[in-house]
UniProtKB/TrEMBL annotation:
It catalyses: pyruvate + phosphate + ATP = phosphoenolpyruvate + AMP + diphosphate + H(+). Pfam families: PEP-utilizers, PEP-utilizers_C, PPDK_N. It comes from Marinifilum breve. The keyword rRNA-binding does not apply. It comes from the Bacteria. This is Pyruvate, phosphate dikinase. Residues 457-536 form the PEP-utilising enzyme mobile domain.
Length: 904
């Protein structure tokens, strides 16, 4: 038997069904399924995605030859089901067709729908005669020429001009004073049809095809061709949709919403896609066809009475006006409304998800044209899943698996009040570097941000770009706006970590001194602006924001995640405030506290620099003694905020030159403050210069060359823990040695830590449980993990460095080539965002297995940026890690991803 290329549906029968999406595309599979469950759907057929694949291999002629017989047979069946005739010369009512593309997932860039296919100068007359409605016949004809001319024949607007078809329509409307297309008289429509044909001839260089079969093959091939348009290819690359999937073509009998006042067309949702409210809703237009509803040529009306009343209230329309001019479908066509309501309920019950549906009413009869699981906001995603679970549609497992972890991000940050946003003036658009909404007064330096914030003001820090020295100012600001930098710039990365709204590379923004201009308009310190970090839009003035709620349905989903997870989630936090935020989001401990950030605050940096500049051990010890109480206080705060949970504190990691002043002015300032000769300072700074700082004198190499640093930090941690213990709390410090490559490096550090702890315990007269462990971030550490586990009580995979060193990509320089690599398909994803499971993943797995072979209760976690990325979280679950650690605002996302990994 020959291969089946065409699947028919109609009259309550179908050759396909819902689970055949791969072969029939989403739209085709659901059209078949709706037929099978007794929903009224116009008959038609689907040409399979496999034909598209053949089309790309064999080309047009061969494929048309291949499927011709099956298509002709399917058209004949459609004719029978609809009691109409394609290419009718008057022997029956003409069958007109809609031709639509339909891939497995809906895809922008694919061919738009062509309606009313099969029309020509003869059929239009037959339709007019048999329907007794000449207006309808010619309205359909002019729609067909316009759509086919545009979509299949490529008639386009010249640059800067309106679409040539619209120009014709505008001219006619203007000449007669019509407000809308459907007011045109039959004579007008006939004139428009002729003018449209002339437009096609002029723009496409050939006549509009009159033979319906030529029209059909033209449209079918145009669908296949659209699989390879630039836009479609780009979208597939972005969404990682395989080339081989192909698109199906759906050919279906037309039903007519433009037959007069008893006809209509519309779009509806079984629940509210914005809020998730369990309320049927949608819009319709009387005497209209398909695209009119979305095209916005006329104001669509609400389907339900309640929707209509809400619309009137928002719109300021009186009840009288509403009833007379904008009645709901429920009021205008109560019987049909009832049927539609039943159908939407049936579809939702059947698919067990919120449905997005399209329908047409032809002269008092309802037809469904499409159904699919509706797209929704994060709020609706959460609410619909919880409601449907509680309504008994499905269990907790399904409710959890229905969540898209990354989308939760939308729910965690303050958002703009929708009405306020609609009224706000847009100033610029940049990269949506970190989501959230912020409104405040502009300041231009980190110090000002801090000072103003201390005075209780909400500030937005505007910088050309940011550096580590801006950290405190960034923290004090409610939002950050930069002139330069990409999605992985310092500002972007740090802001995301802080869960702070940030826009980078804002178009038209120029920052100079205490001034900025946006497209030539000047703004001063203290002026108000607002940032939408989720869209990248900058607004003028203050825009009201609202805080998200973490209980309600969101809380329920999080509780379900908690009950269904094996792996737990920690956070990366350097301050008690961050620790608290993360704890509120459900973090169970800290996976990474970086001690170096603390050294930048206030005048601490001077003490740090004093230590760096010290001539000898004695000098260093003296300076370190000054840092000790400050560090102890920091650790005290963090351990207290995470009381009862493990807190991993990493010893000093970055190369020392990051702490020294690099420009003349700050070196002079330093000389004044310390009393050290500026020449000495310059020499010291120079001596710290390294060719490859990331591979240089950093991590445990610092602690092993300057053991007194490790000693001070260990002391600060243990003293803080002892103090808390005395207060009756339960601190659980885990001291982490960074950048280990050999067992000896760790062993030496461990000895210092343990002997220091012993001394402190004696001094304080109290003991605390603590652990000593290490980061696994150098490939050699992963390879020799069995040795390292002899000393380490825990491993934390530092996947940022591990990725950097496994690939040999410098994270700070990768911006130059990574985007190009991804564009060219050399890499599928940025390995710094999603863990490279095939390569770097092997190191993690090997480290975990070898480590546990030596020490079976070895505690394992991950603390790179990957800890908050769902596919990486799933990998960690499979690899048997105990926890993942991520920035505070990613904690809920990681918790959900961990539960999903456990349920899959
Ligand atoms: P989209 O994917 O943009 O929704 P569709 O392929 O679903 O595009 O079709 C666009 C419009 O065409 C729909 O709104 C629908 O109302 C109309 N349409 C599609 N098929 C038919 C048909 N057989 N009869 C009448 N209208 C149709
Ligand atoms: Mg549609
Ligand atoms: Mg590291």
């Amino acid at each position: 038997m020959s291969t089946k290329y065409v699947y028919t549906f109609g009259d309550g029968k179908a050759e396909g069904k819902a689970d055949m999406k791969n072969l029939l595309g989403g739209k085709g599979a659901n059209l078949a399924e709706m037929n099978l469950i007794g929903v009224p759907v116009p008959a038609g057929f689907t040409i399979t995605t496999e034909v598209c694949t053949e089309y790309n291999k064999q080309g047009k002629e061969a494929v048309v030859e291949m499927i011709k017989g099956q298509v002709e047979a399917a058209v004949a069946e459609t004719e029978k089901a609809m009691n109409a005739k394609f290419d009718s010369k008057g022997e029956a009512f003409p069958l007109l067709l809609s031709v639509r593309s339909g891939a497995r997932v809906s895809m922008p860039g694919m061919m738009n729908t062509v309606l009313n296919l099969g029309m020509n100068d003869e059929t239009v007359k037959v339709i007019a005669e048999k329907s007794g409605n000449e207006h309808f016949a010619y309205d359909s004809y002019r729609r067909f020429i316009q759509m086919y001319g545009d979509v299949v024949m490529g008639v386009e607007a010249e640059a800067g001009e309106h679409c040539p078809f619209e120009q014709v329509l505008d001219k006619v409307k203007e000449a007669n004073g019509y407000a809308a297309d459907n007011e045109m008289s039959v004579e007008d429509l006939k004139g428009v049809v002729e003018e449209f044909k002339a437009v096609v001839r002029a723009k496409a260089g050939k006549d509009f095809p009159t033979n319906p079969w030529d029209q059909l093959w033209g449209a079918v091939c145009a669908v296949f061709d659209s699989w390879n348009t630039e836009r479609a290819i780009l979208y597939r690359r972005m969404e990682q949709i395989p080339e081989e999937w192909g698109t199906a073509v759906n050919v279906q009998a037309m039903v007519y919403g433009n037959m007069g006042e008893t006809s209509a067309t519309g779009v509806c949702f079984s629940r509210d896609a914005a809020t998730g409210e369990d309320l049927f809703n949608g819009e319709y237009l009387i005497n209209a066809q398909g695209e009119d509803v979305v095209a916005g040529v006329r104001t669509p009306q609400e389907i339900t009475l309640i929707g209509s009343q809400r619309w009137a209230e928002r719109n300021g329309t009186s009840e009288e006006d509403r009833k007379a001019n904008f009645p709901s479908l429920e009021e205008a066509m109560p019987e049909i409304y009832k049927e539609l309501d039943e159908v939407q309920q049936k579809l939702e019950d059947h698919y067990k998800d919120m449905q997005d549906m399209e329908f047409t009413i032809q002269d008092g009869k309802l037809w469904m044209l499409q159904t699919r699981n509706g797209k929704r906001t994060a709020a609706a995603m959460v609410k619909i899943a919880v409601d449907m679970m509680e309504q008994g549609y499905f269990d907790a497992k399904t409710a959890l698996l229905r969540q898209e972890p990354n989308k939760l991000d939308e729910l965690l940050h303050p958002v703009f009040d929708t009405a306020a946003l609609a009224a706000a003036k847009e100033l610029s658009k940049g990269l949506p570097a970190s989501p959230g909404a912020a409104t405040g007064q502009i300041v231009f330096s980190a110090e000002d941000a801090e000072a103003w914030a201390e005075d209780g003001k909400k500030v937005i820090l505007v910088r050309r770009e940011t550096s580590p020295e801006d950290l405190k100012g960034m923290n004090a600001a409610v939002g950050i706006l930069t002139e330069r930098g990409g999605m992985t710039s310092h500002a972007a990365v740090v802001a995301r970590g802080m869960g702070k709204c940030c826009i980078s590379s804002a178009a038209g923004l120029v920052v100079s001194g205490k001034k900025m201009t946006i497209n030539g308009v000047e703004y001063k310190e203290g002026d108000f602006i607002s940032l939408n970090g989720s869209t990248g839009v900058v607004y003028e003035g203050e825009v009201a924001t609202i805080n998200p709620s973490l209980d309600g349905d969101f809380g329920k989903i999080m509780d379900l995640a908690e009950a269904n997870t094996r792996m737990y989630v920690r956070t990366n936090a350097d301050t008690p405030a961050d620790a608290q935020t993360a704890r509120n989001f459900g973090a169970k401990g800290i996976g990474l506290t970086r001690t170096e950030h603390m050294f930048f605050e206030g005048d601490r940096i001077w003490k740090m620099r004093e230590m760096i500049l010290a001539e000898d051990v004695e000098g260093r010890k003296e300076a370190l003694a000054k840092l000790l109480p400050i560090q102890r206080e920091d650790f005290y705060g963090i351990l207290k905020a995470m009381d009862g949970f493990g807190v991993t504190i990493r010893l000093l990691d970055p190369p020392l030159h990051e702490f020294t002043p690099n420009d003349d002015a700050s070196q002079k300032e330093m000389a004044e403050i310390t009393g050290i000769d500026v020449k000495v300072i310059k020499e010291k700074v120079e001596s710290l210069h390294e060719f490859n700082p990331m591979l240089g004198h950093r991590g445990c190499r610092l602690g092993n060359t300057y053991p007194e640093i490790t000693e001070m930090q260990a002391r600060a941690i243990i003293e803080a823990a002892c103090d808390l213990k005395k207060e009756g709390l339960d601190p659980k410090p885990e001291i982490m040695v960074p950048l280990i490559g050999t067992i000896k490096e760790l062993k030496m550090q461990e000895e210092i830590i343990r002997s220091t702890a012993k001394v402190v315990f004696e001094e304080k007269g109290v003991e605390v449980d603590y652990m000593v462990g290490t980061m696994i971030e150098i490939p050699r550490a992963a390879l020799t993990a069995n040795e390292i586990a002899e000393v380490a009580e825990f491993f934390s995979f530092g996947t940022n460095d591990l990725t950097q060193m496994a690939f040999g990509y410098s994270r700070d320089d990768a911006g130059k080539f990574l985007p190009i690599y991804i564009e060219k398909g050399i890499l599928k994803q940025d390995p710094f965002q999603a863990l490279d499971q095939t390569g770097v993943g092997q190191l993690v797995e090997m480290g975990a297995n070898k480590g546990r072979a030596t020490r079976n209760d070895l505690k394992l976690g991950i603390c790179g940026e990957h800890g908050g990325e769902p596919s990486s979280v799933e990998f960690c679950h499979r690899t048997g890690l105990d926890y993942v650690s991520c920035s505070p605002f990613r904690v809920p996302i990681a918790r959900l991803a961990a539960a999903q990994a456990n349920l899959r």
